[in-house]
Amino acid sequence: MNILFAYRNWLNPNKGGVGRVADTLARYFGENGHNMYYLNFQYEEKDEYEFPAKIYTLPNPDFYSSANLRFYHQLLNDLAIDIVVNHDASNKRSDFWLNTGKHPAKKISFYHTSPLHGLNRDSGHGVFVNYVMRKLRGVKYKMAILSLLKKSDKLVLLSGEFEKSIQEKLKLKSHKIVPISNACVFDTLQSTSTKKKQVLFVGRVDWSSKRTDKMLRIWANLFNKHPQWELLILGDGPDRKKTELLAKKLELKNIVFKGFVDPEPYYKQASIICLTSDYEGFGLVMVEAMQFGVVPIAFNNWVSLKDVIVHEHTGLVVNANDMHDFIAKLDYLISDENERERMALNAKEYVQKFHIDVIGPQWLALLKSCMNND
Q1: Residue 359 predicted with pLDDT over 80
Q2: Domain with CATH 3.40.50.2000 in the chain
């Protein structure tokens, strides 16, 4: 099959979770005999990464221009694309990618985040207003998902928990919805006994979703108590400068901003990984870290978290948005080496279910199902 991954952003796996997922799947599909292509809006000419697909970019700076749509339709024909995987399912750009014109490509929309994020958001105006706003958002979310289902042959969600939430909260059920967890590739795993006293934050540096600001405020309560430990921030983003200024304001010590880097060497040596996000689709960095015996700790802010962390077995789950609970549990992890070692060993064994050799066949079955109109 000829498969096209469509996404606005540049898909370098070291610069974001979507890129990492796309890279893993594209390599797996290629190894299984499929021809892989990327179509992006962003372009990074000097990127020397060896991508697993031939890359095309939309020619016009106006994303929704007729010139870009003509280019897209022509490319589908020229490459004889069988399946388009729309990685922009959570964005209105889906309307562009799912418009394949007269070309008979099958379309899979891939939702990389929580489909109901913000549904129960507090308006700050009391119980009645919150109730009304929740109902209105529910209608909006349901219309968006119905639109995706109408224009797509399949809709992939990252967890069966998301599918349950849609059924329960939106009263929406469809045979087109397919839950498939993110996959990661496992290298030879090292012993957890070589670990350093390091805490990781891996992800986009922003205060709107990943909440790097919360990570710094948590560290502000711990770095003096544990002076031999350090916090490494791996990633970059729109709030990098603001975050570095906050670190200075809080007079933090033993904190290092690494920027965009390959996280694997850091997974091999770190002991703990923290997720302070307000929401996630899956939390891939947790799974990647766990394969190297890094113990995860995260706010219970998204329903799919239970797919990854079994509380006090493979990591620690923190009460939703409870900073005091996060500080206490991270302090506990830092302080108790035996518990870290126990959870690290459990984590390495547990995440084998996310190996590409387990997740990949689920995707191959989905591709086949699409082509057979199942």
Answers
A1: yes
A2: 2-183+355-371, 192-354
